[in-house]
Every structure is written in structure tokens, then in C-alpha cells.
Amino acid sequence: MEQSDLSDLKQSGYRVAVLGDRDSVLGFLALGYAVYEAADPIEAERILRMLCADRSFAVIFLTEGLAPHLTHITDKFKDAPLPAIVTIPQADGLGQGYGMDSLHRAVERAVGADILS
Amino acid sequence: MAEIRVNPTRMELKKLKNRLITARRGHKLLKDKRDELMRRFLDVVREDRELRQAVEKGLRAAYAAFSIATGATGPRPLREALILPRAEGELTVGTHNLMSVICPTFSLRLPEDAGGGCYGFAFTSAELDPALEELSALTADLIRLAELEKTASLLALEIERTRRRVNALEYIMIPQYEEAIRRISMKLDENERGSRTRLMKVKDMMLMAAREAAAQRGDL
Q1: Does residue B135 sit at the A interface (CB-CB below 8 Å)?
Q2: Using an 8 Å Cβ cutoff, are A75 and B3 in contact?
Q3: What is the pLDDT at residue A7?
Q4: From CA B50, how far away is CA B148, in angstroms rounded?
Q5: Helix (H) or strand (E) holding B205
Q6: CA angle B102-B39-B158, nearest 5°?
Q7: pLDDT tens digits, one per residue of B80-92
Q8: Which pLDDT does position B20 carry in this prediction?
Q9: Where do the structural domains in chain A lie, given as residue ranges?
Q10: How far is B28 from chain A (nearest CA, A)?
Q11: What is residue A108's predicted lDDT score, i.e. its pLDDT?
Q12: Residue B183 exposed, middle or buried by CB count within 10 Å (0-12, 13-18, 19+)
């Protein structure tokens, strides 16, 4: 588990990354996010590893089509204060509902039962 | 269940009793902590869920708008229009203390020209503007969503940990102490009974001896 204290981290100058397929990340190009394209989960894994290793990313948005293939990485950072890896929908609707599922899993972990549904 | 092996002495009994009191107090405190963490956690999760629903809806709408823009402009010119290198937004990370769980807070400052006016209007269609506007309107919500999800997972970890401690105290430590205390006090009682019967026996023997001595004196 990756556990570091937030208090001794620097405060500003962090970046926000968006990682996803070509169509989903297109819009983010213009908005000032660091955008990374990945056509398949293998490429996505390589990029995500790089993003997590680079300490300057505090928030990483990951599209739902890729997220289920990368749980071995995202789970590692779940309990660390940074980076926050957040799943967002994908343009082609692949893996729809995965982001909500992960919220349900967090509830299940804390409460012992999924009380949201 | 593993038992605590100690010498059955009054010293140990007193020590164990003190430890039991401490364990009970700790158990109560941790239980309160767990309940409060749970309350906060559910607040965060509820807000998170609502926000996620809104963001997902918004993003789907933005994607749809982008696919219309792509259709009108063509994928390659659209990419060329958007891919211009520009300044990245800067994210500031603060901390927020929630029941001594340190959670990050994010605030994003986007570059001045984000969202519009940064691409050539000659080669892009009018549909691109609302699509970008829609997406840039979601920025604040996206960042807030990241903050909430991180908070939720950190709280979930802390709740899990606290629940384990509460259960360990409730089902392992406290019963063990109680059992050890019971065993020691039974042993001590047993010893006391043993010494009392011994004393009674000795007293009887002494009385018997005295009586015999008196009888012998009377004979003389």
C-alpha cells in the first residue's frame, strides 16, 4: 500500500491527467488537462504506471472502458492520499456504470454490506 | 480461545482488572469513533453519488455534442484545431481533516483561454463551441468528484480499520480478560477455602490436645 503523509507534500503545481480512448479525451484537449490517449488496456497500463510514478499528477481521470482492466494499479492507490484516480464515462459507452460500481464497493468495504442499492 | 496465562495472585488480579477497565473504555471510544466516521462517510457517499450521476449525464451530453461536431467538421480537422499546445491548468492541493483522516482538497485553476477562442474558426464548425462549453462547465464538478471519491475511499479504509479494532476488543480482548479474572478469583477463593479448613482442623486438633492435657491434669 502506498501511504504518504499529505502534510509534507507540496501544495500547488499539480496537474490533472485524462487517460482514455481517442474519442473520449478529444474534448479535454482544449481545456488545459494533460491528455493521454490509449487505444487498448495494455497501452493504458503503461501510461497509467507512468502517470502514477510521476508525482506531479494529483487527479487522473480514467475512462470506464479501460478502468476494469487496470484495477491492479488503481487498487494500489485507493488508500493513498494522492493521486485520486477517478473513472469517467467513455464516449462509446463501454463499461458503463463501472464508476458507480466502485462507489458501491467502497460502501461495501466500510459498512460490510451495500446499503446504497 | 487463547487464554491469558498469569500467576493467580492478587497483584495479577488487580492488574488485569485495570486492563479490563481500560479495554472497555477504549472499546466504547472506538465504537463512538466508528459510528461518527460512518455518519460522515454516508454523507460523503450520498453527495458523491448525486454528483457522479450529474457528471456522468453531463459528460455523455458533451460526448454527444462532440460527435456532432466531429461529424460536421471531420475528425482530422477537429483534432488539428484542438491539439494546439496550450498552458495546462494548475491544481492546488489542500488538506482537510475529517475525524483525523487527512483528506485532500483540490482546486483547479484553468488557463485563461480554456474552453473557447483558442482554435481557428475558419476550419471548425459552429457545433464545436457548445460542445466545449458543456465540457468546460463540468470542470468544477469533475474536480469536486475526484475530491469526494478520494475522501470516500480514505474514510472507508479508516472505518474498516476502526471496525476491526472494535471487534478485536469486543470479541477477543475483553472476553479474555474477563475469563482470566474469573479464573484467578476462583483460584484465590479456592485457596482461601483451603486455608480456612486447614485452620479449622488445626484448631480442632489444638482443642483436642488441650482437652486431653486437662483430663490428664484432673487425673493427677
Answers
A1: yes
A2: no
A3: 58
A4: 11
A5: helix B174-219
A6: 40
A7: 777 665 667 788 8
A8: 95
A9: 14-111
A10: 19
A11: 87
A12: middle
Distance of CA A5 to the CA centre of its chain: 20
Q: Which of A31, A54, A105 to mutate: most B Cβ within 10 Å?
A: A31
Q: Let me know if domain A14-111 sits in CATH 3.40.50.10580.
A: yes
Which residue ranges form the domains of chain B, and what is each CATH number? 10-85+114-182 (1.10.287.3240)
* Rg (chain A; Cα; Å): 15
pTM for the predicted model, two decimal places: 0.82
Q: Is B106 helix (H, G, I), strand (E, B) or coil?
A: strand
Residue B71 distance to chain A (closest CA, Å): 12
* Residues contacting residue B167 through CB under 8 Å, at least 6 positions apart: none
Determine how many CB atoms are found less than 10 A away from the CB of residue B34.
Answer: 21
- Which chain B positions have a beta carbon within 8 Å of A86's beta carbon? 142, 145-146, 149
Which pLDDT score, from 0 to 100, does residue A1 have? Answer: 38
**Residues forming beta bridges with residue B107, ordered by sequence position:** B92
Which grid coordinates are listed for A103? 462507489
B86 touches chain A (CB under 8 A): yes
Q: Is the pLDDT of residue A8 over 90?
A: no
Reduced to 3 DSSP states, what percent helix, strand and coil does chain A have, rounded to the nearest 5?
Answer: 45, 20, 35
Task: Give the percent of chain B with pLDDT over 90.
Answer: 52
